[in-house]
């Protein structure tokens, strides 16, 4: 891991959701959406959190903001454990960490003009001396995300999908965050518009020194944007490491399966492989031992019986007995 | 070569808009040979799905087919009486959609739904239909097919529901399968399984497939030929190798360079500036001219014709035509 102190560090993060039944709504089980997640976002860098539907990646994003309350774990931001803070004391951190969601129309109030949507957060955190100054700042922000500042008096429905996502980004930037969580922020966009937004996010990072947690299912986007990657499966991180290494030399069979399943646009490379068979099991009843073993092409006797730990491998970590063996033979340190 | 399974000529399908009717599909022509896979690709709103719906006369009101010709297995779809059209749907041509739940009834078991489709078209008994359905489920890779027969759609995962849809579509051995974004709602490991299945079935049964998608990777996996659509019109058509490996239209080239791929890191993604024009804003000439980085002065006013650039590779672009003329 990098020597410098990370901006954000989660340790053993656990967010389970109760399954309630009957007229007394008694808890009959738990959906283990996030089940002991460790991750680090370095200052000014990008960590991508990847995985398929239901793996818990979005719940991680919400847990970091305490939009859902984790039951256990530690969440260090700038040396402060956010999970130990009283809700009132959380206020300054709500400014430091912002989030952009997949559907901009659902996250913008349809009756609020763009100017007011962007200025709302500034007002809450006392940014700008008065309304006129905030309006000026909104104009600058809109220009920064390549929208016409003259359009600030319009309503969200008057913009296209890509433009609305620019508005959401401007709104997040308005309070000068240090970490921006992007939860499938470009997934609903057409590829030509997605390219515009991805380039914009990269420029903003270079300019403002923002750190990103990029939550996505799209591995092409990850390769383009991320410095490090964490791969999530059924509530746990199964592999973590530097982006180039993850793509060039994936150590976990699930990562290898994911990469083999992505179709290429290169006509000389055809034939995705469905190494990973079947469906993702329910996070309410995760399989015994390694949670990936029922779908793993390389599983052996030990896998259903014992739960592998996340062991350090090279620049990162892998939760697989095979990587454990490789680590002990190839890397005596 | 035998007659094409599908021939579409000058298809125009319109929807009402604030200023008169707007053509979502505006003069589209293409052919699909027996056993061939043609991908119709483009971004949201380009008209690819409306084209697909037009083929079986499934365009939802107030949309309507204005003109053109659609021949499926030699029969003109646009002039067929409804009773005959029902026979074409399912028997000659079947369709699968992105979201299986829009096509499956939530209150009937999946097995019974396939049996119903079979018995609607063929005079077979209940027991035989059940046997055929179980075989089909087996063929599309539904594990434990016998017991899945009695499952309701909500009891199945997204991948299994899509397999049920494919089984139902192939039940009557149609010559044409229209697949509208068949893997878009699926996770990538499930998508890989469905792509493998479609490839195997296509090889085995020789069904011609019209694949509608925005995903150029999926296109590369399945297609023999590719037609690229923009703002209601086709802009480029050719073999998979021609279009993905040697794209000539500025829009196709832009699209390909905008895809963040696994093989590249660091380099900036190519953007296509601006947004797709609404039907009211479309230029009378080339519709891509408002966003085209190499547009000529005549492009906004003069609609480009077909320019063949190689055998089977056609582009509609003044710039390409001019380069060739030199």
Task: Describe the SSE topology.
The complex is a heterodimer of chains A (about 325) and B (about 325).
Chain A: E1 8-21, E2 26-41, E3 46-50, H1 57-64, E4 72-77, E5 80-81, H2 91-96, E6 97-100, H3 104-107, H4 114-124, H5 131-144, H6 161-173, E7 179-183, H7 191-208, E8 211-216, H8 219-225, E9 228-233, E10 236-242, H9 243-248, H10 253-261, H11 302-305, E11 311-313, E12 316-318, H12 321-330
Parallel strand pairs in A: 3-8, 3-9, 6-7, 7-8
Antiparallel strand pairs in A: 1-2, 1-4, 4-5, 9-10, 10-12, 11-12
Helix pairs in contact in A: 4-5, 4-6, 5-6
Chain B: E1 6-17, E2 20-32, E3 37-41, H1 48-55, E4 64-72, E5 75-76, H2 82-92, E6 93-96, H3 110-121, H4 126-139, H5 145-148, H6 158-170, E7 176-180, H7 188-205, E8 208-213, H8 216-222, E9 225-230, E10 233-239, H9 240-245, H10 250-258, E11 307-310, E12 313-315, H11 318-325
Parallel strand pairs in B: 3-8, 3-9, 6-7, 7-8
Antiparallel strand pairs in B: 1-2, 1-4, 4-5, 9-10, 10-12, 11-12
Question: What does the model show?
Answer:
The complex is a heterodimer of chains A (333) and B (326). With 333 residues, chain A is of the alpha/beta class. Chain A has 12 helices and 12 strands. In chain A, the strands form 2 sheets. Chain A has an 8-stranded mixed β-sheet with strand order 6-7-8-3-9-10-12-11, sandwiched between helices. Chain A has a 4-stranded antiparallel β-sheet with strand order 2-1-4-5. In chain A, helix 5 crosses helix 6 (161-173). By secondary structure, chain B is an alpha/beta fold. Chain B has helices spanning 48-55, 82-92, 110-121, 126-139, 145-148, 158-170, 188-205, 216-222, 240-245, 250-258, 318-325; strands spanning 6-17, 20-32, 37-41, 64-72, 75-76, 93-96, 176-180, 208-213, 225-230, 233-239, 307-310, 313-315. Chains A and B meet through helix 7, helix 8, helix 9 and helix 10 of A and helix 7, helix 8, helix 9 and helix 10 of B.
